Amino acid sequence: MKNIEIAKKYQDYMVEKRRYFHENPEMTGQEYKTIEYLSAELTALGIEHVVIENGGILATIKGGKEGRAVLLRADVDGLPVQETPDNLKKGMRTCVSKNPGVMHACGHDGHMAMLLGAAKILLDKKEEIEGTVYLCFERGEEASGNVEYIFPYIEKNNIQIDTVYGTHLLATAPSGYLAINDGGMMAGAMGFNITIEGAGGHGSRPDQANSPIDCFVAIYQRLQALRLTKVDPFKTCTYSVGVLNSGNQGNVIPQTLTFGGTMRTFDRDGVGAVFHRELKKAVDGICAAYDCKATYNSYGMPGYAVVNDAEIAQWARKVLAQELGSENVGQWEPWMASESYNQYLQQWPGVFAFLGIENEEKGIGAAHHNQEFDIDEDVLYKGAAAAATYAIEYLKDNSLKGGRKMTYKQYLEKVGNHKQLAKHYGE
Questions:
Q1: CA 63, CA 45: separation in Å to the nearest integer?
Q2: Mean pLDDT throughout 361-380?
Q3: Which of 215, 188, 212 is nearest to 201 (CA)?
Q4: pLDDT tens digit sequence for 271-289
Q5: Confidence at residue 145, expressed as pLDDT on a 0 to 100 scale
Q6: What is the per-residue pLDDT for 178?
Q7: Can you tell me whether residue 119 is helix, strand or coil?
Q8: 427 falls in which pLDDT band (50, 70, 90)?
Q9: CATH of the structural domain 3-187+305-425, one choice from 3.30.230.80, 3.40.1000.10, 3.40.50.2300, 3.40.630.10
Q10: What is the mean pLDDT of the chain?
């Protein structure tokens, strides 16, 4: 029986799980009940697994034959968003968060449900599997931090992985369409948070004060021009300021101002390095001109983009088209949002897939991280079938590349993350 047909048998199961996760979301780093629930479900399915402290869950399905290994990944955390009772269409939302101010507004509830569905397919075909499939449920993806506990665990326990596969539901693609690009899927990100200190004073005598607001306005104007004057017009780069805090009374000039934001690009070492350099140059120069002081609360180098292995991507589209139909599998416009999955693809060959959920009739199509965001549950079985098929078919084909491209330690050295190097490798 084709995997897609088996997946259809578990569609109701996945819908049930998705609704539970959606109604009971937990914030990044606080997914304790979610992990407990997942662990209990894996136990009920008879799947061996370990709960990695702070990291999530790594489960193991050993096939009937010896062979290589595939890791399938899902993320589990929610967002600080107050969900609306309706999506884009009144009366069409199937379930609503029961936790005030917390919502699965990015599709992680569906990701967990699909990976559990894939697990059931793999169990049904266990004797046919020529190797091992690992199921990774990752905590804290929205902050991209908790994955730092998963990779050292894999290394310390000498867990051999040959390829990785992940799925992200996508609100801009039509429902049921699976996209696997030959290259970039999601952008790399750089976050920044900076405090400007001036000299506070009375609003009636700005000449006796030194407003950090004036300094920030000049910095912001320079930031607006940076894209045009410093960035290659043929390269992608977006950025924005999303945090701005200063003062609390209209007749008082504040002492400090804090602003923060992000930059996104697919060209970390080119555009990313330019932005990193030029923003700091602007902040330092303008603060000096305005007699202010800048404190860099956070100012790391840009992360890497999520970039698929082209050879495996082409193979995956061919194999998955046989399950989902050629009209339902292809490529899609890259997404400028960012994902911790870039760290998996830096270490192992593999792919990241988008699964479309846009459905106007059901009121589904609101942007990710939006209070009206919703998913089309009818696509869950397709995502599960795709993940299971990737694992099964990859393990059959020893001609496909596999194995580590670099260790996690080498990755941390590459991105200059000395804090995590010291934490996990004692340096």
A1: 15
A2: 98
A3: 212
A4: 999 999 999 999 999 999 9
A5: 80
A6: 98
A7: helix
A8: low
A9: 3.40.630.10
A10: 96
Question: Residue 216, Cβ neighbours under 10 Å: how many?
Answer: 25
The single-letter DSSP state of residue 424 is H
- Which position has the token pair 């043929």? 234
Q: Is the pLDDT of residue 166 over 70?
A: yes
List b or e across 13-37, with b for residues whose CB sees 16 or more CB atoms inside 10 angstroms.
bbbebbbbbbebbbbbeebeebbeb
β-strands 163-174, 350-358: how paired?
parallel
Q: What is the model's pLDDT at position 161?
A: 98
What are the residue boundaries of the structural domains of the chain, listed by start? 3-187+305-425, 188-299
> In 141-187, where do the E strands start and end?
163-174, 178-179, 184-186
| β-strands 163-174, 256-265 pairing | unpaired
User: In this predicted structure, what is the pLDDT of residue 416?
Assistant: 84
Regarding pTM above 0.85, the answer is yes
Q: Which of 281, 282, 213 is nearest to 253 (CA)?
A: 213
Burial class (CB in 10 A: 0-12, 13-18, 19+), 353: buried
H helices within 303-407, ranges in order? 310-324, 342-347, 380-396
Q: What is the CATH number of domain 188-299?
A: 3.30.70.360
Q: Are 16 and 68 in contact (CB under 8 A)?
A: no
Taking residue 399's Cβ as centre, other Cβ atoms within 10 Å add up to 6
Number of H helices, E strands in the chain: 12, 16
Tokens standing for residue 379: 């696509």
Q: Which of 76, 240, 64, 68 is nearest to 143 (CA)?
A: 76
> CA end-to-end span of the chain, whole Å?
52
Rounded CA gap, 256 and 198, in Å?
A: 6
Rounded CA separation 104/107 (Å): 6
The alpha carbon of 128 is separated from its chain's Cα centroid by a whole number of angstroms, namely: 32
Length of the chain: 427
**pLDDT > 90: percent of the chain:** 95
Tokens found for residue 146? 């908790």
Smallest CA-to-CA distance from 82 within 315, 369, 364 is with: 369
Confidence label for 418 from pLDDT (cuts 50, 70 and 90): confident
pLDDT tens for 16-67 read 999 999 999 999 999 999 999 999 999 999 999 999 999 999 999 999 999 9
